[in-house]
Design goal:
Layout lengths: L2 H17 L23 H45 L1 H4 L4 H26 L9 H4 L6 H49 L1
Length: 191
């Protein structure tokens, strides 16, 4: 499947997860790196991997938090855009069918964009976090298993961050198109 359709499929899965409780959104396969086997690594090398895994995971979680903040701004903007579009309904009602269709399509696209923005900060994301309670259940050698788990957790979180970025980009695209159609409708109905 092409990246174009994968992006739309990810967006749709987030919208569906928003309205269907328990529906898991998909994650895009954005990384092709496979985690290696670290069971024979030296302790110093495992320490390095664990430290790097922690730093990377912290950065990725901060990126996700930042993206969710941007999604909240996009959602608020989408609600404001929808209010503007709805306020123009009385001016469109008496115009040509093309103006009504353009108005309706702009309204739908803005609603679709706002829904995607809402989904990107409401839907539960797939991230892996290494916690002390789970770590306490490991059998020796703990360090090798912890290093392996960090490598795998980073991959999962990278996919989630990249998918969330795609969903937010798609939401902004739909909001922009909805706003552009509303602007075109406004020009036609005022001219």
């Amino acid at each position: 499947m092409s990246r174009f359709w994968e992006s739309r499929q990810a967006y749709w899965s987030y919208i569906r997860a928003l309205v269907t409780p328990g529906w898991p959104p998909i994650s895009l396969a954005t990384t092709t790196v496979q985690t290696g086997n670290v069971s024979k690594w030296a302790d110093d090398d495992l320490d390095t991997l664990i430290e790097e895994g922690r730093r990377t995971q912290d950065r990725l979680l901060a990126d996700i938090d930042s993206l969710r903040g941007r999604s909240q701004v996009a959602f608020t903007t989408g609600i404001a855009l929808l209010a503007v579009i709805v306020s123009q309904l009385h001016g469109v009602a008496g115009h040509s069918p093309q103006a009504v269709v353009t108005y309706s399509l702009g309204w739908f696209l803005a609603l679709y964009g706002a829904g995607g923005a809402l989904a990107s900060f409401v839907v539960q994301l797939e991230v892996e976090v290494i916690s002390a309670d789970v770590l306490s259940t490991y059998s020796p050698p703990v360090k090798a298993q912890l290093a392996q788990d960090y490598a795998e957790a980073v991959q999962t979180t990278i996919r989630t961050r990249d998918t969330l970025t795609t969903v937010l980009r798609e939401a902004m695209l739909w909001l922009s198109l909805g706003g552009a159609l509303d602007a075109a409708t406004w020009v036609v109905t005022r001219g």
